[in-house]
Every structure is written in structure tokens, then in C-alpha cells.
Amino acid sequence: MRTVKGDVLDSQITLNCRVATAVISSLGTKKISLEPVTLFSTGTKNLLGAMQHYNVKRLVCITGIGAEDMKGHGGWLYDKLILPLVLKRIYDDKDRQEAEIRSSNLDWIIVRPGFLTNQPAKGSYRVLTDLTGVTASHISRADVAAFVLQQLTDDRYLHQTPLICD
Predict the structure, then answer these.
(1) Rounded distance, CA 156 to CA 106, Å?
(2) Which of 83, 100, 105, 126 has the smallest count of CB within 10 Å of its CB?
(3) Is the dihedral of CA 85, 37, 22, 116 positive or negative?
(4) Distance in angstroms (rounded) separating the CA atoms of residues 94 and 27
(5) Angle at alpha carbon of residue 112, lines to 45 and 161, rounded to 5°
(6) 3-state DSSP call for residue 36?
(7) Could you give the CA distance from residue 38 to residue 162 in angstroms, rounded to a whole number?
């Protein structure tokens, strides 16, 4: 496996996809914004275009709690205060990002990790596609990374949006 980094907002991203067999997208922003956010949707459109141009079929994308049908599964504080008051603009764009991915012809998996920690990998976690009655818990970044790498070759969650958490 070879890692190639690129800037999804740079039109030259296509040059980086030239040698790819799969793409992992883990876009993020450090800034909370009251202004509209477009990083996720614009970056994903650029990435999807580059993947299509070079016939790269596999995309594993990390979004999060609060995107699309994951809303309402973060617990009261997160669902009622943090998401609508602090993260709304970011997750509005993550919704657009996920819609772009879903409408593509790619072999995609959208990974939605629980609340991220810096703890060491446990090597065991829950992978949930039925969110009935589920409230997300924590998961280490290391476990998320291991799960994402596994999805590069595993079709079990193809065209699904699994939540992963402890």
C-alpha cells in the first residue's frame, strides 16, 4: 500500500488519483463556523471527479455523528445543544457530502465513528447499521483507522453507513 496525500480543494487532486486503487477521505475542519461550510461537499465533488477520471472505484469516507440518518443518536446534550448550535453548518455540509457520495457510481462506504478519543486501539468495537435505539459511544482514533483500512478490501458494508463505537 502506498499513501498519496492531496488537497481536495486543489484542482490538481486528479494527479494524485492517477496512481490510486482506492481512496480514504477523512476531511475535517478545526474551525467552528456560523458561516456556510463547503469544504466537505466541494472537496468530495473534486475527489469524485478525479476518481471517475482515473477509474478508481473504492471510496471509504469518514463523516460523523450528526450526518444524515445518524441525527438523534448522539445523546441529549449532543443532539439538542452541540449539533444544532455549534456544529450545524459543518453537518449541513457533511449531509451534502454524503449525498454526493451516495449518488456516485462508486463502491463506497461511509464510516461514522462515535465520539473520538486518543486512547490506544482496543481491537474490538461495535459496527452498527441498524440504529434503532442506539446512542453512540466513544471509539479510539486508532480503532477507526483499523476499521477504515479493513474497508479498502472488505465488501460487507458496501453502500452502507456503519456507526462504529465501543
Answers:
(1) 15
(2) 105
(3) negative
(4) 10
(5) 75
(6) coil
(7) 24
CB atoms within 10 A of CB 156: 11
Segment 118-127 mean pLDDT: 97
The rounded distance, in Å, linking the Cα atoms of 9 and 19 is 19
- Burial annotation 114-142 (CB, 10 A radius, 16+ → b, else e): bebeeeeeeeebeebeebeeeebeebbee
Cell of 74: 448522539
Q: CA-CA distance, 112 to 161, in Å (whole number)?
A: 7
Residue 8 banded pLDDT, cuts 50, 70, 90: confident
Query: Is 140 strand, coil or helix?
Result: strand
Q: Which of 18-32, 33-47, 101-115, 119-133 has the lowest mean pLDDT?
A: 18-32
Taking the mean position of all CA atoms in its chain, how far away is CA 138?
Answer: 16
Q: Please say if the pLDDT value at position 19 is more than 80.
A: no
